[in-house]
Amino acid sequence: MNWSPAFWWHRLQRAWMLQHLADVRYRFMWDDPPPDEWVSLDCETTGLNTRSDEIIAISAVRIQGDRILTSQRLELLVRPERAVPADSIRVHRLRGQDVAGGLPAQEAVQQLLHFIGSRPLVGYYLEFDVAMLNRVLFPLLGVPLPQQQIEVSALYYDYKFRQLDAHQKDRSIDLRFATLMRDLALPEREAHNALNDAVMAALAFIKLRHLLGR
Predict the structure, then answer these.
(1) Is 187 contained in some domain?
(2) For the whole prediction, is pTM greater than 0.90?
(3) What is the pLDDT of residues 119-138, one digit of tens each?
């Protein structure tokens, strides 16, 4: 058995979350995940402020081994409470009228939780997406997302860092999504579209797992 500090921290964190879970119908998120399965996730938002901006689109796609199950995907438009700023429209091209018929944020996140289950999450700068989702989730469940989170840019950094000679270790590594995809010789889709970004992150994750021997 693994008696490391990380093991005990995980056990304590899990116990705390389950104790504070406000809706026991979501205990399934703490089940053992299906082997060799992940969910690649991306959100489009009205801005980059995790405290005040809103989610307007959520997409997720399941990964099974080396396969991206595009037939098992989730695509949701989310209706914001405030107007969509012009600056964000220029990025993702989702206008107010495009998302006016979307789901309320809490309903969209509930659908996402059932789609994810207990599978680990994959994404590019996933921390931002998770922070946006947790803001909606806390009033519902009283706890944040419990799933393991795997950051594609961190995997790419590890891969590139291993290739540097000792005298190059202080060199910066370009972690931009387009750079990452081109360097890995992966097909690029139109960026700032939630489903496209989720699929591209899944492609990068699968290739980097092989390159890193994981």
Answers:
(1) yes
(2) yes
(3) 999 999 999 999 999 999 99
